[in-house]
Amino acid sequence: MNTIPKTTFEFLKKLKKNNHRDWMQANKKTYLANEKALKAFYAAVTDRLNEEDEIEKVKVFRINRDIRFSKDKTPYNVHRSASFSRSGAHRRGGYYLRLEPGNSLMAGGFFSPESKDLLRIRKEFETDDQEIRAILANSDFKKAFGGFNTEYQVKTAPKGFDKQHPAIDLIKNKSFFVKHSFTDEEVFAPDFLDHLIYHYQLLRPYFDYMSDVLTTDLNGVSLLE
């Protein structure tokens, strides 16, 4: 399936107003039908990504919320999300899709990388930030994403880094991902899959660069051999 049925959002809107187990149980048939349609769409996304990339795994996030440590005890997410993981240690970065009435988006990059990778990225930017800035400044990339999401940053500078460094705006990040929002009209348009894949393809030069960074040391020696 190359399109998303409008029933998906109709269900999520109703769920938002009736976020409890009794309602979900009464509407389980509709939920399962929507999930089947969404999984078919995710499969179509995977097929298209595999034309120029190699996807190892598709993760469909559960609709059930983890409420153990949350003040919000509503049991269900009111969005549907999936991620597409690239195959192999030499392919870094991942694709993400969130579908929610009035708040749909795609994203890609590196969300909360492990400490070793985070330090390696920061050291690369400290040593030479020209290549990453060229990628971020690309007109199509900038138009689609703006730049890194800066919601997750340290306040001044990470330990061991100069807060006056010219690349401190990049080094301060704790995550390195970009995102693009879609209107509901765009989500239900016949060409949404094409539109989505276009934005994923814009990430490839960034992924190629970061894959090179994360699979080599600061001297450019491969860590995979």
Description:
Helix 3 crosses helix 9. The chain is globular and about 60 Å long. A five-stranded antiparallel sheet has the order 1-2-3-4-5. It has ten helices and five strands. It has 225 residues and is an alpha+beta fold. The protein has helices at residues 7-17, 21-26, 28-49, 115-127, 130-137, 139-145, 168-171, 184-188, 192-202, 204-214, and strands at 55-60, 80-86, 94-99, 104-110, 176-182.
Structural class: alpha+beta
Order of the strands making up the biggest sheet: 1-2-3-4-5
Number of helices: 10
**Which of globular, elongated, flat, extended, rod-shaped describes the shape?**
globular
Secondary structure layout:
Layout: H1 7-17, H2 21-26, H3 28-49, E1 55-60, E2 80-86, E3 94-99, E4 104-110, H4 115-127, H5 130-137, H6 139-145, H7 168-171, E5 176-182, H8 184-188, H9 192-202, H10 204-214
Antiparallel strand pairs: 1-2, 2-3, 3-4, 4-5
Task: Provide key terms for this protein.
225 residues, alpha+beta, five-stranded antiparallel beta sheet, 10 helices, globular
Summarize the structure.
The protein has 225 residues and is of the alpha+beta class.
